Amino acid sequence: MSSYDPYKDFTNRLKLLIGKHPDLIITTLSNIFTMRLIGNKTHGDLAEIAIAEFINQYMYDFRSVHVGKDLYRAKSQEQDITIINEITKAEFPVSLKAYGDGSLQLSTDKNSRMFPRLEQEGSTVEGQNAIQKVLQDAAFAEFRNINVLPLIYDEAKQQCNILVFDYERAIRETERIVRVDAGNGRKHPVYRFYDVADGYICEVRYGDATANALQRGLWTHTRNGLNYFDSLTNGWIGYSHNLVLVKLFSHALVSSETGHSAALEKITEDITRLKKTSGVSG
Question: Is 162 exposed, middle or buried (0-12, 13-18, 19+ CB in 10 A)?
């Protein structure tokens, strides 16, 4: 029997909230992806503070704190926000990703341990005993301890899917790990994980110290490995651009704290209205 997982408890609660009140997450996602009109990468950073505030406003028994980029070097784990369960007092880090539909990085494998460990096994690892021996190794400790919350978007269709990778199922159902060498547009080799039906699960990319963060670590694919994700939004949900928000930002950047305080009061009133309209306890 698996032990209590505070992150799994959180994502289950988030999925329940989204299912009951989809309007709240649609509004938030629309605001987040509107930021791509300002800059291609702006939405990623703002998604962190937006989701942290979404949790604080609408998930009454959870509290969230945005960690901030200035603390990056001091982090012991990959995280953008810290979430606290106000009932159990469990506290856990979450790494938030806003990626297009396709390749998704689950861990940078900062210490470059996964790939070298797989190299010890040769080009192929088969059989449950051999696979579990590798995955239970300390080099793969991160495999079980990464809390990644990905906001996967399709910009052309203006839709988003919040997908959470099922690590436990991936570990349980891996039947074969195969090395794929460089070539066909790939600069470095990878080890790919497959299930009993030869379905793609995930991959470990080149782990040498010379490899950058995008060339190494644990990756998967939101289309090829879809069976190993749980959708918190129950599939794709549409969002729309909020052009008023862009105008608000531009005006806020050239106005004073006095104006910001007045605007914040109005925005706080609107959040209260949204809570009452949706029937969310606060």
Answer: buried
Cβ contact 215:187 at 8 Å: yes
Give Cα 198 to chain centroid, integer Å: 25
> pLDDT (tens digit, 9 = 90+) per residue, 16-34?
999 999 999 999 999 999 9
Burial class of 169 by CB neighbour count within 10 A (0 to 12, 13 to 18, 19+) = middle
The token duo for 25 is 């997450």
Question: In 3D, which of 220, 211, 203, 192 has the Cα closest to residue 111?
Answer: 211
Mean pLDDT of the chain: 90
- Distance separating alpha carbons of residues 153 and 257, to the nearest angstrom: 34
- Which amino acid is it at 251? H
Residue 50 host element (H or E): helix 42-58
- Residue 55 has a CB neighbour count (10 Å cut-off) of 22
The pLDDT tens digits of the residues spanning 111-122 come to 889 999 999 999
Inter-axis angle of helices 42-58 and 257-278, to 10 degrees?
60
d(CA 47, CA 95): 11
Domain ranges of the chain: 6-268
Structure tokens at 255: 């106005």
pTM of the model: 0.90
62/11 Cα distance (integer angstroms): 11
What is the distance of C-alpha 70 from the center of its chain? 20
Strands 103-107 and 217-221, by their bridges, are antiparallel
